[in-house]
């Protein structure tokens, strides 16, 4: 017998849920030994327990510990412990660290962490076979989904699927029970801010589908606030990052706890003793001082810009801000009073905040249990070609951001020409493009907080291109997909190519050979779109 399992891999915490076929509903999964419990308050004041797995992994000699195991053994500040793995992997900061005489990259640590989570989840359900669903951030690139696919294969999962985190949240809040509802999903987690406007529709057979009307996102989250606090704490104690590197993990741990405490307390005191010098490092943070820091770094401007972008997309599809019936808050950072206040200032009583911690995992479990999802393409895709008159490479868009799928017909048609006489293999370079808004941090300081190979915290200045559009070559492994027989002549307009998008969100190609009249390819998948 198989079971539907969902894994919502987060920057700070990871959650799992299962689909209960007998009840036709999803439920959170408490995994012994690695899960902890968080309390969540519903709209009627009832308190519920939500299991979560801290996104931590420690390579402790011959043992590998994850989640609660790391905390129980007092290893959260160990140099052998990895945190923020999702953020590093999603942002392509796959840095190596020296652990016990060997080098471990963040992609490897994240893989090992999830493989262990899956193994523990299988043991907790008592099932040997599962169909799993994994969540993806709105602004995730193809490399992140490919990395997750490799993780699933490493874990021995035969069947796995992916779902957009925002759409999973809408399902987790129960919107699939009311057809036609339009809502905004405000997902503010440890690594990213994702804002989506979705409409729930009914489908024959009792299943539901979710149409995404607009999306906005930013590379900012709870971990970003931790970075700001870390830098502020060092400044208050007149320390440089280099001077505090040996206790950086302890400082970060204390600051994260303080940030969480300020969701319910007015002020907290932090005091850490330097084990080498005995010098105390201390600071008092009030809720208002934290909010001032967030204001200085442009967080509220970033929040409003992300909501504006999603609203702009929705308006383009005929849905105004007044069409939104509910605004659903998701993610640990959305628990902060100032964040809730910023959203409520715009949407008032429409804001719902009773499932911020487990909505995504529950929605993903519902998805794998049969709730269907229709979406649109989030990124823009283009062909790179050489413009001979200008003497440089340029891009030709073939799929615009927001294109619905499956497409009703070709989304673009081009003709492939040979670049030299006798050419036998021809193709096209397809690139995935992310707009600048998708990677903007909202911070006036252009830096990233990263762990160096020893596990200490360092600051990395952002490169200028980090703030501009990003281009990723998607089909680098198979750029040539047309076999010319007989061989082609230079400049011969011989191979018309039509691009379509199928129901699995894949870019498909149809290629004809005008010289021979043969159909060389018919709706064959070329790449997976995001």
UniProtKB/TrEMBL annotation:
UniProt xrefs under Gene3D superfamilies: 3.30.420.40, Actin, Chain A, domain 4, Substrate Binding Domain Of DNAk, Chain A, domain 1
Matching InterPro entries: ATPase_NBD, Heat_shock_70_CS, HSP70_peptide-bd_sf, Hsp_70_fam
Keywords assigned: ATP-binding, Nucleotide-binding
Pfam families (UniProt xref): HSP70
Molecular function terms from GO: ATP binding; ATP-dependent protein folding chaperone
Family label: Belongs to the heat shock protein 70 family.
Protein known as: Hsp70 family protein
């Amino acid at each position: 017998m198989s079971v539907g399992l969902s894994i919502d891999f987060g920057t700070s915490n990871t959650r799992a849920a299962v689909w209960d076929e007998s009840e036709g509903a999803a439920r959170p999964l408490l995994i012994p030994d690695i899960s902890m419990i968080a309390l969540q308050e519903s709209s009627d004041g009832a308190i519920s327990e939500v299991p979560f797995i801290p996104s931590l992994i420690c390579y402790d000699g011959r043992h590998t510990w994850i989640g609660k195991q790391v905390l129980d053994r007092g290893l959260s500040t160990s140099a052998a412990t990895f945190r923020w793995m999702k953020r590093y992997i999603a942002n392509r900061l796959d840095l190596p660290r020296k652990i016990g005489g060997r080098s471990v990259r963040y992609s490897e640590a994240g893989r090992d962490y999830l493989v262990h989570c899956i193994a523990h989840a299988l043991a907790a359900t008592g099932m040997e076979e599962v169909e799993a669903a994994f969540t993806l951030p709105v602004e995730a690139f193809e490399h992140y989904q490919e990395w997750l696919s490799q993780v699933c294969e490493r874990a021995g999962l035969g069947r796995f699927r992916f779902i957009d985190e925002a759409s999973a949240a809408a399902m987790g809040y129960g919107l699939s029970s009311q057809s036609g509802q339009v809502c905004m999903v405000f997902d503010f987690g440890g690594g990213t801010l994702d804002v989506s406007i979705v409409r729930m529709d009914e489908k024959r057979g009792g299943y539901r589908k979710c149409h995404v009307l607009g999306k906005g996102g930013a590379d900012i989250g709870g971990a970003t606030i931790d970075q700001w606090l870390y830098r502020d704490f060092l400044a208050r104690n007149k320390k440089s990052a280099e001077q505090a590197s040996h206790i950086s993990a302890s400082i970060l741990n204390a600051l994260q706890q303080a940030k969480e405490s300020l969701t319910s307390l007015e002020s907290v005191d932090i005091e850490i003793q330097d084990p080498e010098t005995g010098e105390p490092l201390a600071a008092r943070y009030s809720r208002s001082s934290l909010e001032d820091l967030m204001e200085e770094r442009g967080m509220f401007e970033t929040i409003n810009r992300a909501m504006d972008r999603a609203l702009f997309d929705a308006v383009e599809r005929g849905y105004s801000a007044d069409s939104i019936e509910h605004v659903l808050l998701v993610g640990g950072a959305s628990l902060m009073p100032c964040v809730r206040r910023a959203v409520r200032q715009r949407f008032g009583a429409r804001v719902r905040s009773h499932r911020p911690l487990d909505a995504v995992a529950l929605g993903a479990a519902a998805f794998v249990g049969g709730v269907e999802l229709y979406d649109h393409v989030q990124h823009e895709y283009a062909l790179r070609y050489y413009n001979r008159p200008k003497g440089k490479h340029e891009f030709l868009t073939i799929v615009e951001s927001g294109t619905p799928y499956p497409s009703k017909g070709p989304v673009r048609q081009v003709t492939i020409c040979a670049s030299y006489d006798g050419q036998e293999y021809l193709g096209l370079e397809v690139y995935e493009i992310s707009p600048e808004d998708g990677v903007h941090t909202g911070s006036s300081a252009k830096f990233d907080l990263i762990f160096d190979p020893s596990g200490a915290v360092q600051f990395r200045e952002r490169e200028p291109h980090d703030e501009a559009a990003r281009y990723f070559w998607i089909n680098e492994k198979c750029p040539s997909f047309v076999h010319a027989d007989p061989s082609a002549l230079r400049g011969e307009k011989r191979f018309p190519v039509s691009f379509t998008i199928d129901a699995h969100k894949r870019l498909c190609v149809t290629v004809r050979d005008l010289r021979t009249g043969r159909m060389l390819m018919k709706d064959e998948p070329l790449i997976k779109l995001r």
